[in-house]
Design goal:
Layout: E1 3-8, H1 12-23, E2 28-34, H2 37-43, E3 51-54, H3 63-73, E4 78-83, H4 88-97, E5 101-104, H5 109-120, H6 128-140, H7 153-163, H8 168-175, H9 179-193, H10 198-207
Parallel strand pairs: 1-2, 1-3, 3-4, 4-5
Length: about 210
């Protein structure tokens, strides 16, 4: 079966270019082409893709918020960013939100298709400039040798599930507890880490090597 690809891109001509590229590549099928996150969230259920290629500088809801929402709704969905933005904050936020890879729009057509294949095969394709930035980001935010937030083994296990992309429902199923129990433990985790959301908790866990 061909790999189903959806595109979220507000620039009409570039969206058409990507659609033609995907449609003309063996082993792929275009499952949808959308100009905004809002349109994608509304229409994707009609033909849920295997992988999404998305910009992050979009009108209305940002692509990064879109990644979070789509990963919540479809935990197994693979999402690749393709954008002009290469600043540290957007790269870090996109990866923490659940993006599998990060390509720049100047990426050659063949490399885009290779990136899609790589992601489907379990890889994390990145433009060379982005890969260097990611390495530098993690080198600069390296925490002290020991950081102790007094997390229990159960809280660490839940935190690990969040980093892996689980939501309340799937985490509850994995741990064989109720969603209310997950919520209770998450509040404890937020309090200990001094954060206010799942995204902040995941980012802090990665920065401080808590898992």
């Amino acid at each position: 079966m061909p790999v189903k690809v959806a595109i979220i891109e507000d620039h009409h001509e570039y969206r058409q270019y990507l659609a033609a590229l995907v449609s003309g590549s063996e082993g792929f099928r275009l499952a949808g082409s959308f100009g905004s996150v809002e349109e994608a969230v509304k229409k994707i259920p009609v033909d849920v893709p295997d992988i999404i290629l998305t910009d992050i500088g979009l009108p209305g809801m940002s692509g990064i918020d879109g990644i979070r929402i789509l990963k919540e709704k479809y935990p197994n969905l693979i999402i690749l960013v393709e954008t002009i933005h290469e600043d540290d904050e957007r790269i870090f936020d996109a990866l923490c939100a659940g993006a599998t890879g990060y390509l720049l729009k100047k990426t050659q057509p063949l490399r885009i298709i290779e990136g899609l294949k790589d992601a489907i095969s379990g890889g994390s394709p990145m433009s060379p400039e982005i890969a260097r930035r990611v390495i530098r980001i993690f080198q600069e935010i390296r925490p002290p040798e020991r950081v102790d937030y007094n997390l229990t083994p159960h809280e660490i296990r839940l935190l690990r599930l969040l980093v892996e992309g689980h939501n309340y429902k799937t985490a509850a199923a994995e741990l064989r507890v109720t969603a209310s129990t997950i919520n209770f433990h998450l509040q404890k985790i937020y309090e200990k880490l001094q954060v206010h959301s799942k995204t902040e908790a995941v980012a802090k866990a990665l920065r401080n090597r808590l898992i």
